[in-house]
Design a protein that fits this description.
This protein is mainly alpha-helical. The chain has 5 helices and 3 strands. The chain has one domain: Metalloproteases ("zincins"), catalytic domain (Zincin-like, 2-Layer Sandwich), CATH 3.30.2010. Strands 1-3-2 form a 3-stranded mixed β-sheet, covered by helices on one side. It binds zinc ion.
Length: 134
């Protein structure tokens, strides 16, 4: 939570964003806020979809990922979701959540996986395409 800038002086002398020593381009306060917002959105999605699909993740979390929107370890029932989802539409976030939960039923991206996706989320392909938008 950033301090409210109630006065012009307060605004003028507001400190610059706190940045990572290792990755100077990273705004840590913004990242913390995005992480909190994303987690607040994911919780209700899991609460909705887990009973609907008859699955339950043992653990889920949000982290920075370079190449993926999410990962699932089906044997550990552990799901990680990318922090980058904070900048995607809610429909796309829901797609990734359902995708990772389907991995609890089918670990690989085979025909059964796609059939399950279509069963639970018939418009999953359109939602997936929202991930690629700038
Ligand atoms: Zn997958």
């Amino acid at each position: 939570m950033s301090k409210p800038r109630s006065t012009l002086l307060g605004w003028f002398f507001a400190p610059p964003p706190r940045r990572s020593r290792v990755h100077p381009e990273r705004d840590l306060a913004a990242e913390k806020r995005q992480r909190a917002e994303l987690k607040a959105a994911i919780g209700p999605l899991l609460a909705l979809w887990e009973p609907r699909m008859g699955v339950k993740a043992a653990f889920w979390g949000v982290k920075r990922m370079r190449t993926r929107w999410g990962t699932c370890n089906p044997s550990a029932r552990r799901i990680w979701l990318s922090l980058a989802l904070a900048s995607r539409p809610p429909e796309a976030l829901e797609y990734v959540v359902v995708h990772e939960l389907v991995h609890l039923l089918e670990p690989s991206h085979n025909a059964r996986f796609k059939a399950l996706m279509s069963q639970f989320l018939p418009d999953w392909k359109a939602r997936k395409s929202l991930l690629a938008m700038p």
